[in-house]
Amino acid sequence: MTNTTHLIRDARILGGERADILLRGGRIEAIGPGLAADGAQVVDAAGAVALPGLVDLHTHLREPGREDAETVATGSRSAAMGGYTAVFAMANTDPVADTAGVVEQVWRLGREAGHCDVHPVGAVTRGLGGEHLAELGAMADSAAGVRVFSDDGMCVSDALLMRRALEYVKAFDGVVAQHAQEPRLTEGAQMNEGVVSDRLGLAGWPAVAEEAVIARDCLLAEHVGSRLHICHVSTKGSVQIIRWAKSRGCDVTAEVTPHHLLLTDDLAESYDPIYKVNPPLRTAEDVEALREGLADGTIDVVATDHAPHPSEAKETEWCHAAMGMLGLETALSVVQHTMVDTGLLDWAGVARRMSETPARIGRLTGQGRPLAVGEPANVTLYDTSAERVVDAAAMASKSMNSPFNGMTLPGRVAATFLRGVPTVLDGKIQ
Amino acid sequence: MRHLLSAGDLTLDEATLVLDTAKELAQVGGRSVKKLPTLRGRTVVNLFYEDSTRTRISFEAAAKRMSADVINFSAKGSSVSKGESLKDTALTLQAMGADGVVIRHSASGAAHRLAEWVDGAVVNAGDGTHEHPTQALLDAYTIRERMGRLDGLRVAVVGDIRHSRVARSNVLLLNTLGAEVTLVAPPTLLPVSVRTWPCSVSYDLDEVLPKSDVVMMLRVQAERMNAAFFPTAREYSRRYGLDGDRFARMPDHAIVMHPGPMIRGMEISAEVADSPRSTIVEQVANGVSVRMAVLYLLLSGSGSGTGN
Amino acid sequence: MHARKHADDGSQSRAVLEGPEIDRALTRIAHEVLERTKGGADITLLGIRTGGVPLARRLAERIEQVENRSIPWGALDITMYRDDLRLAPARAVGRTEIPAEGVDGRVVVLVDDVLFSGRTVRAALDALNDLGRPRAVQLAVLVDRGHRELPIRADYVGKNLPTSVRENVTVRLQELDGHDAVLIGPARPRAGRAPEETATGGTGTEADR
User: Fold this and answer.
1) Domains of chain A, start order
2) What is d(CA B302, CA C86) in angstroms, rounded to the nearest whole number?
């Protein structure tokens, strides 16, 4: 921390021209070829891509309540390792983040850990119960300054309550992030409903249960003139509905997870719950539609839905296993593999979807800024030419439930700078 | 064959070998000494997480007739009910040197998971709503004994297909053995992707019955009645129950099967269940022979068990 | 049930018994059985699968010709009683067919093609024990090639054939192979072959391992 001046040599700015970047006093002081700075610590990027620090709109840090799975400290370290400088911590903790007290606790823990900015998401309803609005205004006015509200894990399925929430958060420019899942259609649901679930005898989670709620909420948001964000879009139909809603002028944004961009429901044939997640892995046709939707802007952001679980919650029968998978430390590699290496996105497009837009949706002012002189020095250096076999045991996360474990994926986060301070250097946590 | 997890894992040759072996082993039941020394020194664990006395007894009788040591491990009154995980139980069985584990579990895929955690052979004795391969084998055996063949036979499977592990295993196995399967159920009790299965589908029992050589009636579980899969038990029975009138419209040579336990009156009327064309009692006897064959083929050879 | 193997058709095998000699040996055994059992009033012939079954039938026919009455004969499958099940993949089970007279109180003559280690006969005695209680059990074999591993000897022998353990004895029978012959040859030249595999071949190939 003593030396807050860093000179990044030979980075490719958003994958384009090669330049040096000088970080001083928490800001980007200069960008250009052949920069020199006395006393600066030199970081040789060796042609790595420079991106604005990544922002994750959807992370589960599990603290308070499930510190055996993850803590704010371990989760934010995992985020830094993945190239993130800010994460939004979901509200389904124990106690639920539905009061100013809990969101301030999470916010403070994040500041103490110091690996990345931690912005708590506030619950929409008290205790995620889906019946009474939580004190949204108190959370917005708290030190944590909450702007994103979500019952993630649970759907705000009551249409009237959803309408009220959408309306209410307008008072402080908030947004409701909906976990779209019609509860009656998904009672006991274990995986995507289709050929594979029918064969495996696992209760199905039909696409319509997601799509129907998204359609309803888009219409509601349009009707009351509110912002709406859709969490973890997983089906082709959802992409089509969001595309249609946007064409009508509805102020809706949507996210897709890395795992939904790569993995499909046939992985469940192993009955290994490492592939159990909510919403579930879908079909190859859905994956293709999600990639297209992310490329053409229908889907605005990539969010990890990083969901740590202890091994005993996964080393069990499928239907007794917890839903969710790790994502922070593999997100950029999966996006490179599915979107960049396939020619669907360039690195500027990645920066928009993994930094700029999520910061804008969450109303962060110091994150997701361009790589330009005078901007906050939140920078991620990403070596696109590296290749690695994913090793869940070596991750910074406290849990190991990565579905990518053992897979060979491209790329490696070489360094992450949070306001000029390296949180990761040479691929190692600082 | 290292485990028996799904009826779909069996090739035609393997399935035929099981049935042929069962046919020979059936003789043992008629001898004064109803025992073979074949699996002496081998340990078979019956790991039953669900109450199923008839299946457990059938496997137990099969293992004992082959001289295996049988350990019954049921969820009630064991560490399982105290929350021990399936994996920890598996490691315990492993340490005890179980050569074979017969598992019945309410979770689909439990047998697959267990097979990853133990070295011994795993036999799926019913996992959730997934499969029950030995039931399908004994059904196929029963059909072959009664009808003399399986190839080209028309088999109607009637009832709660969606939640039935018996139906899943039967569709796969009967298809492998060359029978033509037609599933008959209200649309609510059929899986959404049933059209991709290797069988025909009908909503109309009366249309299918006259064209069937075998009619297999499935159990409709009580909990389905409260979940709007059909309006009332009476309506279900009227549309999909096998009563005397419908029985009379079946071809004279056709047989009626039921995996049991059956709900007399709703799925099948008493006169049909007790008719000589019903195979319900011999299905039980055949179950022991088929399970002996499965245990023999999985546990006797060099490619099986824990070796020493 | 078994695929019949003819792995040793090679030129190195030589016939030690041909059809007519086999015929004569069986005829002699038939007479010996009658003599030893004093007319064979309550004998039952049981052929050990697979090679012993046609031999049992032929012996029964010969005795019937001499005595002019029917002689019960059947087949005994000993797969489930073998002591080497764990040394090879699971084997297909054959059919045991016991004639209507049963075995209780009978003089059962077990019939096999080759007597070698004695283990097949041991298994057959166990199988027989589970089927009932014969008054006496005797053993007839077409060829005794020596090298016993158990205290077992034949009551009736078609031909004593001194062999090396490394040699391979094969019995061909009309009913199974299309012609009668007893062949002797070098061990089949398959590198790394485990000794017990010798026993798994078709009829008569070291059949009693």
Assistant:
1) 54-361 (3.20.20.140)
2) 4
B168/A202 Cβ within 8 A: no
Q: From chain A, pick out residues whose CB is under 8 angstroms from the CB of B197.
A: 198
pLDDT in tens, chain B (308 residues): 799 999 999 999 999 999 999 999 998 888 878 899 999 999 999 999 988 888 999 999 999 999 999 999 887 655 555 567 889 989 988 888 899 999 999 999 999 999 999 999 999 999 999 999 999 999 999 999 999 999 999 999 999 999 999 999 999 999 999 999 999 999 999 999 999 999 999 999 999 999 999 999 998 877 777 788 999 889 999 999 999 999 999 999 999 998 877 777 778 888 888 899 999 888 888 999 999 999 999 998 875 433 33
Give the mean model confidence (pLDDT) for residues C190-204.
38
The answer to whether residue C201 sits within a structural domain is: no
Is C190 part of a structural domain of the chain? no
Residue A411, exposed/middle/buried by CB under 10 A (0-12, 13-18, 19+)?
Answer: buried
Q: What is the ipTM of this complex?
A: 0.91
Residues in B lying within 8 Å of C, measured between beta carbons: 1, 17, 20-21, 24-25, 27, 31-33, 35-38, 66, 296-298, 300-305
Chain A residues closer than 8 Å to B103 by CB: none
B300 and C85 within 8 Å at the Cβ level: the answer is yes
Contact between chains at C91 and B300 (C-beta distance less than 8 A)? yes
Q: Is residue C24 in a domain?
A: yes
A63 Cβ contact partners less than 8 Å away, ≥ 6 residues apart: A70, A71, A72, A75, A93, A106, A109
Nearest to A201 among B87, B130, B197 (CB): B130
The count of structural domains within chain B is 2
- CA-based nearest residue in chain B for residue C95: B24
Task: Give the burial string for A162-195 (b: 16+ CB within 10 Å, else e).
Answer: bbbbbbbbeeeebbbbbbbbbeebbeebbbbbbb
Of B85, B87, B165, the CB nearest to A201: B165
Residue C130 and residue B300: Cβ atoms within 8 Å?
no
- Return the closest-CA partner of residue A43 out of A78, A4, A16: A4
From chain B, the residues in CB contact with A204 under 8 A are 192
Give the model's pLDDT for residue B82. 53
The verdict on whether residue A251 carries a ligand-binding annotation is no
Helix axes A207-224 and A159-168, enclosed angle (nearest 10)? 50
Distance from the A271 Cα atom to the nearest Cα atom in chain B, whole angstroms? 6
**Same domain assignment for residues B122 and B58:** yes
- Tell me if B304 is assigned to some domain: no
CA angle B63, B68, B69 (to 5 degrees): 105
Q: Which of C27-60 are b and which e, b meaning 16 or more Cβ less than 10 Å from the residue's Cβ?
A: eebbeebbeebeebeebbbbbbbbbbbbbbbbbb
Has A243 been labeled as part of a binding site?
Answer: no
- CA–CA gap between residue A194 and residue B15 (Å, rounded): 28
Residues of chain B positioned with their CB less than 8 A from the CB of C129: 33
- Cα nearest neighbour of B8 on chain A: A199
**Closest of B172, B97, B163, B94 to residue B130, by C-alpha:** B163
CATH code, C83: 3.40.50.2020
Q: Is residue C45 included in any domain, yes or no?
A: yes
For chain A, list residues with pLDDT below 50: 1-2
Question: What's the rounded Cα separation, in Å, for the pair A419 and B291?
Answer: 68
User: What range does the domain containing B86 cover?
Assistant: 7-132+284-299
For residues B144 and B218, membership in a common domain is answered with: yes
Query: Which domain does C115 fall in, by range?
Result: 18-163
